[in-house]
Design brief:
Length: 212
């Protein structure tokens, strides 16, 4: 079953005006050719900028799907096989905001949400299924899958646009689109293990392959 996260925006009767819609997951059953729509939390649905922060991550064996919006402070755990929402949790989105004075000044001059573009891999699930990393307005949020609670904030002053775990889960890669760098960080501590230049305007991390 394939799935995509969308923000529905139905047009008015005259076809000219878009009314605020709501976020949902469009799950496609490829074998039997039918689709199921799973509604995500409705709070903040009118905030189109924050809607860009919706992202999804599928568990290793494909049985659980997580949809996270760090700007709105919302997370949904979905039974991928049964196409139903198991749990919904909320958290204070302010934990995603940068705390430093320079970051606060930058946020005042150009709000992070408004400047954020659609991301590729804005949410990542660790190979052991225990931790979610989600791109925030600044930095990353670590979320425990057992409780669906935020456990810590990583790189709170970084403009992270994409994230992916290594094959063994002991490290992860974070793309800083503003500086055009890809950082490898330790999963346990968040410490930078390496940094690579990737050029201007990178779209996102496509995948991370194990060394052969």
């Amino acid at each position: 079953m394939a799935s995509t996260t969308r923000i529905s925006a139905p047009r008015s009767a005259d076809g000219q005006t878009k009314r605020p819609g709501h976020p949902f997951i469009h799950a496609l059953e490829a074998d039997n050719r039918f689709a199921i729509c799973l509604d995500l939390p409705q709070a903040g649905k009118e905030d189109e900028a924050a809607a860009l922060f919706w992202g999804m991550a599928l568990s290793r064996y494909g049985n659980t799907l997580y949809a996270v919006n760090s700007a709105l402070g919302q997370i949904a755990e979905i039974d991928a096989g049964g196409a139903s929402v198991r749990r919904i949790a909320t958290f204070d989105p302010r934990v995603a905001a940068a705390a430093g004075p320079l970051a606060r000044l930058g946020g005042w001059l150009a709000p992070a949400v408004a400047a954020k573009q659609l991301t590729m891999r804005g949410v990542a699930l660790s190979p052991d299924g225990k931790t979610i990393l989600a791109v925030g307005e600044r930095g990353l949020l670590a979320i425990d899958t057992a409780s669906l609670k935020v456990t810590r904030r990583i790189a709170p002053d970084a403009a992270v646009g994409s994230v992916a775990f290594s094959a063994d889960g002991r490290s992860f890669y974070a793309l800083d689109a503003a500086s055009g760098t890809l950082q490898r960080r330790d999963t346990a501590t968040g410490a930078v293990l390496g940094e690579f230049g990737v050029g201007a305007h990178p779209a996102g991390i496509l995948r991370v392959e194990a060394r052969r």
